[in-house]
Write a structure and sequence with these properties.
Blueprint lengths: L2 H14 L3 H19 L6 E5 L6 E10 L8 E3 H4 L11 E5 L5 H30 L5 E9 L3 E6 L2 E6 L14 E12 L2 E7 L3 H11 L1 H4 L3 E9 L3 E8 L6 H6 L4 H9 L4 E6 L4 H8 L7 E5 L4 E6 L4 H5 L4 H10 L2 E6 L14 H5 L2
Parallel strand pairs: 2-3, 11-12, 14-15
Antiparallel strand pairs: 1-2, 2-4, 5-6, 5-8, 6-7, 8-9, 10-11, 13-14
Helix pairs in contact: 2-4, 5-8, 9-11
Length: about 350
């Protein structure tokens, strides 16, 4: 070890952010093991690396006792006072035992320790950078694909998007750019591991925060999300400011904001619902785009009986019950939908609009 070694540690500290003192402490600890292994000794030793010159010395540490039972670990008071007259019983005496060829062993050990610490530090920096992105949106490129996962390149790391967490409409190819939601960040023995999802409801939330300034600024709040990834979603929004239209803000001029999100989600339909603390009104809104005639609540059982015009029944229920199912998830109420005819009311005469037909 010499000044070149100390200078190299200084450079690592500047470039990698690993404190020189931390590296030297780690090397000293590793050299103790190397000394015991290479020189077949079990004695208590300390390794010291001079912080300015890089000079390495090995010291045997012995306890001052009245009668020695183990010469490797103990020393008499008379013998100890040959080194210093100030020693007393139970003091620790350090005697230099540096082997002649210890420099070669030290150089190999130091290289291994520094390489390992640099690798650990880089992994730590990457982990710290990504652990803050948990529950956030990330943007990356598909780098490779296997039977179970898409592997998405994110800056200095490759994240996993399990195929089970991709949308049915996702047909990703290598080189495709994709946005995904970070569900988990772990520090494993192989380094930081980031797991992504395209089906998580919070993906929709983060996309709206990205596209709608009023949500990002907190003027408009997302109160609830119900999602069947790749097919249809419902999102309930509320504005703290009476002058701000929560639904209109999310739709955007000429529908541009919501359309950008629909495009990112490969055509997934999105119903934007106005949240209300009046549960009957909120449940009626949740069945959008269908119209509702009446809502009756059974508070104790959280069941809502909803009456819709005859010509709106199929629209309210949706294909395979999807609209009603999403409304129930959104409101956390069980919803029983009936037509006017089914409950004995005269049916509405209004004709079904072409827009409603298209949304079926």
């Amino acid at each position: 070890m010499n000044m070149d070694f100390i200078n190299a540690l200084d450079e690592i500290e500047r470039e990698k952010g690993i404190a020189k003192e931390v590296l030297i402490d780690a090397i000293e600890a590793a050299l103790i093991s190397s000394y015991k292994r290479n020189f077949n000794t079990a004695q208590n030793v300390r390794v010291d690396i001079h912080r300015q010159t890089g000079l390495i010395k090995v010291y045997a540490r012995k306890t001052v006792v009245e009668q020695v039972s183990d010469q490797r670990m103990e020393i008499t008071l008379d013998h100890a006072r040959e080194f210093s007259p100030h020693y007393s019983f139970n003091d620790i005496v350090e005697i230099e035992v540096t082997p002649r060829d210890f420099g070669r062993i030290a150089a190999q050990t130091a290289k291994q320790v520094v390489t390992q610490r640099i690798r650990e530090a880089e992994r730590g920096l990457i982990f710290n950078a990504f652990v803050e992105k948990e529950d956030e949106l990330v943007n990356g490129l598909v780098q490779r694909i296997d039977q179970r996962n898409y592997y998405i390149g994110l800056e200095k790391l490759e994240a996993m998007l399990p195929i089970t967490e991709s949308m049915p409409t996702d047909k990703l190819k290598m080189g495709d750019r994709v946005k995904a939601y970070v569900t988990k960040v772990e520090n494993t023995t192989k380094g930081p591991q980031v797991v992504l999802s395209r089906t998580h409801p919070n993906l929709l939330k983060r996309l709206f925060e990205l596209e709608v300034p009023e949500i990002y600024d907190g003027v408009v709040e997302i109160r609830s999300i119900a999602r069947e990834a790749g097919f249809r979603s419902k999102i309930a929004v509320y504005s703290k400011n009476e002058d701000v239209d929560s639904v209109g803000s999310c739709v955007g001029p000429k529908g541009m904001r919501v359309q950008a999100i629909v495009n990112e989600l490969r055509g997934e339909k999105i119903d934007i619902v106005r949240w209300s603390d009046n549960m009957a009104e909120y449940i009626a809104n949740s069945l959008s785009p269908s119209k509702v005639v009446e809502v009756t609540l059974q508070e104790s059982e959280k069941i809502a009986r909803v009456i819709v015009p005859d010509y709106q029944l199929s629209l309210a229920i949706g294909i395979k019950g999807q609209n009603a199912r999403l409304a129930a998830k959104l409101t956390n109420w069980k919803i029983d939908i009936k037509s006017e005819s089914q409950v004995g009311l005269p049916p509405s005469t209004q004709a079904e609009s072409s827009a409603e037909l298209e949304q079926r």
